[in-house]
Amino acid sequence: MLSPFYQKELVEAGCDEAGRGCYAGPVFAAAVILPKKFRHPELNDSKQLTVAQRDKLRIYIEKKAICYAVAMVDNDEIDTINILKASFKAMHLALDQLMVIPEMLVIDGNRFTPYKTIPHHCIVKGDELYANIAAASVLAKTYRDEYMQKLHDEFPHYNWKSNKGYGTKEHRDAIDTHGLCKYHRKSFNILSTALELFDEI
């Protein structure tokens, strides 16, 4: 069972992102404030959960959280400001939407751009330690997966419904065959033997 909070005195929001290492699509981030008595035996880092577990946890988190928010930064902005800054911006955008203003932020990872004047702590593998960060990881992951399913419908030959835009062999082979599309992150210097860049099928 994960610890519910990093500390108990201040209203605390957990933040995490999904899709930072992908070849295509946006990066998503979530911010979550949980109640003091929040518990769920299956809650963990979203990468260690099955799709069914994540989907079930998302419903539970959204029902039980004091408040939560999810935001995204698209691939064009990622190419403009870089993926690290885009990840932080997505977290900031999620925090902007919270109905309760947190007094402390706990961030998964080792770096973060300060948000307003709210103190924060960066915690490596925080989604394996604290429930609010793990909850944020579940929301960011499930919302992004849903979004990539929609992009898959537009460009099915990359099979984003399965690989979610990550650089799997299947995805790399599809890029070699079809080239890059408008949702690929051009700043990632994805190698392709195909020269065509297209905007629609």
UniProtKB/TrEMBL annotation:
Reaction(s) catalysed by this chain's protein: Endonucleolytic cleavage to 5'-phosphomonoester
Cofactor(s) needed by this chain: Mg(2+); Mn(2+)
Enzyme class: hydrolase
Cofactor info, note text: Manganese or magnesium. Binds 1 divalent metal ion per monomer in the absence of substrate. May bind a second metal ion after substrate binding.
EC number, as in UniProt: 3.1.26.4
Domain (RNase H type-2) ranges: 10-200
GO molecular function terms noted in the UniProt entry: RNA-DNA hybrid ribonuclease activity
Pfam family, one: RNase_HII
UniProt-annotated location(s): Cytoplasm
Residue sites binding a divalent metal cation per the record: 16-17, 108
Major site of localization recorded for this protein: cytoplasm
Keyword Isomerase listed: no
Keywords per UniProt: Cytoplasm, Endonuclease, Hydrolase, Manganese, Metal-binding, Nuclease
Family: Belongs to the RNase HII family.
Functional note: Endonuclease that specifically degrades the RNA of RNA-DNA hybrids.
Cited NCBIfam families: PRK00015.1-3
Designated name of the protein: Ribonuclease HII
Organism: Danxiaibacter flavus
Lineage: Bacteria, Pseudomonadati, Bacteroidota, Chitinophagia, Chitinophagales
